[in-house]
Design goal:
The protein is mainly beta. Helices cover about 10% and strands about 20% of the residues. Strands 1-2 form a two-stranded antiparallel ribbon. The longest helix is centred in the middle third of the chain and has 6 residues.
Length: about 60
């Protein structure tokens, strides 16, 4: 899935930052450096609660 960060500045000066294509903590990590003022509302999509699958490598001897 395509990862996207969309920043919208409304006529009243409010700024909306919306992410898509990220899972779990990724959306917060990618937007952490965007400092556009005080956060008034933080709405989470379902993807924010998904866990990132971890890959586990196992070495098998011969």
């Amino acid at each position: 899935m395509l990862q996207k960060v969309e920043v919208t500045i409304k006529k009243d000066g409010k700024v909306v930052v919306e992410t898509s294509g990220f899972t779990g903590q990724e959306c917060y990590d990618v937007t952490q450096d965007i400092n556009l003022g005080k956060v008034v509302k933080d709405l989470k999509k379902d993807e924010a609660y998904e866990r990132i699958p971890r890959v586990r490598r196992v070495n098998v001897g011969r």
